[in-house]
């Protein structure tokens, strides 16, 4: 009986162990031995996700700089940009490209354990550890923006929601925003960049794909849709998220 080398692969392919020998790349499977898998360029990060990432990184750095320089007008403007970006990313996590969807990087404890034991490789999208860092970053940023909107420095600036919530909540939000949240973000971003450097030293280059969108993977790996249509849809979604952030910004004036 002859088996097609690909017949036993089910989505997602990249959860299978991937090894390489003498320059040839293989995917192995316990039941069927080692089969050569042709590698090809696969779109993993769609353009909206890449633009989201680098814009977010730039805005977060600028938010810290503007806060430290007391340039609060710009701090607020950038804060609203991050609010729009986060709203965009949450919705894109439901409707975006295959590897940008949350369900492609929600892992079971078993998958986690197998990944940590080196038995399962996740080379295409976020690995289980990467996913943990992504969710932690997104949650910390959502908290930072939400508390910023309610913060009040008791001198000259207050977020647009401060006047709509209780004094106690304003104090807690301000304490979190200025005393906890910012340091939590430094730690998470530091770990994020450190992890990427460690992967790079071990030969796994993750930054390139976050710029070009593509990774070299077995040709049957599912790819993220990244067509003109999906990009226009992302633009419409971003415009809606921007309108929402603008509306939130107006809540401070009445
Ligand atoms: C304030 C700075 C940063 C923040 C807030 C941040 C945040 C994030 C987030 C939220 C993701 C998930 C992307 C998604 O699925 O939407 C991500 C992924 C990623 N980031 Fe950053 N990032 C920052 C800086 C950087 C820097 C400086 C680098 C480059 C050295 C970098 C490289 C990457 C890469 C390569 C990924 C994909 C990781 C993977 O393959 O699993 N990030 N980042
Ligand atoms: C990811 C988004 C944000 C980051 C990383 C961030 C970061 C910071 C930092 C580092 C400080 C200075 C704390 C200190 O050392 O004194 C600060 C203060 C402040 N931020 Fe943000 N911020 C963000 C979003 C926002 C937003 C959306 C608003 C409101 C629209 C806001 C309003 C404020 C206010 C009012 C203060 C002064 C608090 C005080 O000093 O008591 N921030 N922020």
Topology:
Blueprint: E1 18-21, E2 24-29, E3 33-36, E4 39-43, H1 47-68, H2 72-95, H3 109-116, H4 128-150, H5 167-201, H6 207-212, E5 214-218, H7 228-250
Antiparallel strand pairs: 1-2, 2-3, 4-5
Helix pairs in contact: 1-2, 2-4, 2-7, 4-5
The structure holds protoporphyrin IX containing FE (2 copies).
What are its keywords?
disordered N terminus, binds protoporphyrin IX containing FE, 254 residues, Fumarate Reductase Cytochrome B subunit, mainly alpha, 9% strand, three-stranded antiparallel beta sheet, globular, two-stranded antiparallel ribbon
Overview of this protein structure:
By secondary structure, the protein is mainly α. The chain has a single domain (44-253), classed as Fumarate Reductase Cytochrome B subunit (Up-down Bundle). It is 56% helix and 9% strand. The protein contains seven helices and five strands, in the order E-E-E-E-H-H-H-H-H-H-E-H. It has helices at 47-68, 72-95, 109-116, 128-150, 167-201, 207-212, 228-250, and strands at residues 18-21, 24-29, 33-36, 39-43, 214-218. The strands form two sheets. The chain has a three-stranded antiparallel sheet, with no helix packed on it. Strands 4-5 form a two-stranded antiparallel sheet. A hairpin with a 2-residue loop joins strand 1 (18-21) and strand 2. The longest helix has 35 residues, at 167-201. It is globular and about 65 Å long. Residues 1-34 have low confidence and may be disordered. Bound molecules: protoporphyrin IX containing FE (2 copies). One protoporphyrin IX containing FE binds next to helix 1, helix 4, helix 5 and helix 6.
């Amino acid at each position: 009986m002859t088996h097609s080398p690909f017949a036993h692969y089910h989505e997602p392919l990249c959860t299978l162990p991937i090894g390489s020998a003498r320059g040839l790349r293989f995917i192995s499977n316990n039941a069927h031995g080692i089969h050569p898998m042709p590698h090809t360029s696969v779109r993993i990060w769609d353009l909206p996700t890449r633009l989201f990432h680098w814009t977010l990184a730039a805005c977060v750095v600028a938010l810290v700089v503007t806060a430290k320089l007391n340039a609060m007008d710009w701090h607020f403007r950038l804060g609203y940009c991050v609010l729009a970006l986060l709203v965009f990313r949450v919705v894109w996590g439901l409707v975006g490209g295959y590897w940008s969807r949350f369900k492609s990087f929600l892992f079971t404890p078993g998958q986690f354990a197998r990944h940590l034991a080196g038995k399962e490789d996740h080379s295409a999208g976020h690995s289980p550890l990467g996913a943990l860092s992504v969710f932690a970053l997104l949650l910390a940023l959502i908290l930072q923006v939400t508390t910023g909107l309610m913060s009040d420095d008791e001198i000259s600036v207050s977020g647009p929601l401060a006047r709509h919530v209780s004094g106690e909540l304003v104090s807690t939000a301000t304490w979190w925003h200025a005393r906890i949240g910012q340091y939590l973000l430094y730690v998470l971003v530091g770990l994020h960049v450190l992890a990427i450097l460690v992967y790079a030293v071990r030969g796994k280059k993750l930054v390139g794909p976050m710029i070009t969108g593509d990774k070299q993977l077995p040709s049957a790996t599912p790819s993220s849709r990244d067509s003109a249509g999906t990009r226009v849809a992302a633009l419409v979604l971003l415009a809606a998220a921007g309108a929402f952030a603008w509306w939130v910004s107006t809540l401070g004036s009445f």
